[in-house]
Amino acid sequence: MSQPIVQLDGVTKVYRQGSIDVHALRGVDLEIAKGEFTAICGPSGSGKTTTLNLIGALDSPTSGTVRLENEDLGALSRKELSEIRRDRIGFVFQAYNLVPVLTAYENAEMVLWVQGAPPEDRQRKVMELLEDVGLSGLEDRKPSELSGGQQQRVAIARAIASDPAVVLADEPTANVDSETADTLLDLMERLNKNRGVTFVFSTHDPKVMDRARRIVRMVDGSISDDTVKDAVT
Amino acid sequence: MKTQTLLGTVRVAWRNLWRNGRRSLVTIAAMTLALLAMVIYASLMRGLLGDMERKLLEVEVGDVQIHAPGYLDEPTLYDDLGESERLVGDLADLGFPATARFLGGGLAAAGDASAGVQIVGLDPEADRVASGLAGELAEGEWLSASEPSGVVIGSRLARTFGVEVGSELVILGQSVDGGIANDLYVVAGVLGSFSEAVDRSGVFVVEEAFRSFFGYEGGAHRIIVRRAPGGSTEDALAAALGLAPDEDVQSWRQLQPTAASMLDAAVAGLQVMMTIVYVAIAILILNAMLMAVFERIKELGLLKALGMSPRHVLSLILLEAGLQTGIAIVAGLTLAAPALWYLSEHGLQMAGLSGLTLMGMSFDSRWYSQVDAFSIGAPVSMLVIIVSLAVLYPGLKAARLRPIDAMRHQ
Ligand SMILES: Nc1ncnc2c1ncn2[C@@H]1O[C@H](COP(=O)(O)OP(=O)(O)OP(=O)(O)O)[C@@H](O)[C@H]1O
Ligand SMILES: [Mg+2]
Question: What whole-number distance in Å separates Cα of residue A47 and Cα of residue A28?
Fold first, then answer.
């Protein structure tokens, strides 16, 4: 088997809330390989967001190690972590995903712009991606002029524009109706198949988790179950 | 940061300005008004101070004066500078314009009126080098060596006597040998108003006329020294002290302490005023930009989550303040231009100030503004500095946000 993209070893996370310690993660071991389409599920408060934030270099563990493409994130400075997020991770958040003053096109272009990619490359890539996610003709709309599903498509286009090692999506369908959720999952699935984009998303919607090829269940800060559906490719 | 990225940041900053357009406009308007007021105020103060200083230094006092020791305490014809001619020449060789003045007291009379006067003898051509007196004529002509009976008199004296150019004036005095000196003169010119002393009692004659009136053969009583072009009063003072170590050498600040401290106070007043206005502006900017940062804390968190560097976020916030300041500078200076043009061409009519003297200096009836690098540059650069300082806190705050905290923010 190829080298995993993401490796969590004995990861714990304790949040201090006043005088109380909240144990958000209690020793998580997890590996994500290239090309996976994985759902992290579990009840509210079970540690899904915390896990994704640690993988995404947005937070650091209390103990244990998080490796991205075999690099220990714990050894990196804030600046380096920021560059890791920019260059190697795609994010799709549940809400507040897009910058309101920028158009769909500009939002999709955001990460490439922050990277300082040449404008011609950006233009070619973003136009192609917006077409792929089904937003042709809506490039100049502001987020407020797009539906919730369309906004998430822009976020997905932005997340994959920089060819990241992994796209992390924290409850990407929580704010849209189930029909839209279905089409978003269709889109993610297609991008996973056609472009080989690695997706890790969290959800507590059983319908959404059924679409995943691997389901990681979390309960109270630990992984209780890890199922890979038919290991056929 | 690459140019492309910077341009993109400017575009985002610009759009952010108009998210809360009213707040941005209020901020811009406040900065514009403050800048407009400060530019006009600074130009007027420059005009006033420049005028006062010019009259004081150029026309009346000079930068440095040399007298015989004790002369200033008790002026007499007999306390002269001896080799004044050589001293003037030496100063000129060092690059300091200087002129010698012969001073004596007398009584002038015209018609029924009479008044005590100070008779000042000078070389009409040489004097122009070191003194602006010749340029202060309100009427008539400057003295001429070929017309030894011509006199130039102070404005108030002319009014008291009711004389004008061409009128006759009798002057009485005591000659060196103790006898009575008297002569008939013709008013060649009347000076404009610039100082209490000269206005009320100044009578200027050519050196030759002074000598023949008093029967005087000694040296000058006062040497007026100017700074070298582009130099300072201090240089002139040092040079004069070096050349005349045994004489009484004083700078204009020592000679006119009240006027000097008044000028200093006016400059300090300008600075205090500017500081107060700009501190108010700083608070406004600080508040507006803090609101702008806190309002979009989630969005800034998103930008940081996506990998925008702290420096890039900081530059975004600085640009937002910078764009507002830029607009305010363009608007403020555009609005100030016609006002400044009018004030420097026509001045403010200050009927109440006409002929008024304050601490020995008199004011013109019109108050002109002076537009120069200081009167424009100081208010503009102060604004830029103040805004940069005020926006630093919100900017750093935004740059240092932890993305997950910011995105969780309610
Ligand atoms: N910044 C924080 N400070 C304190 N406690 C936190 C913080 N973030 C998360 N927690 C706590 O850690 C635990 C795990 O939270 P997490 O957000 O990972 O859960 P989740 O599975 O994503 O839940 P949900 O389905 O509600 O999004 C919860 O008990 C939560 O209250
Ligand atoms: Mg969550």
Answer: 10
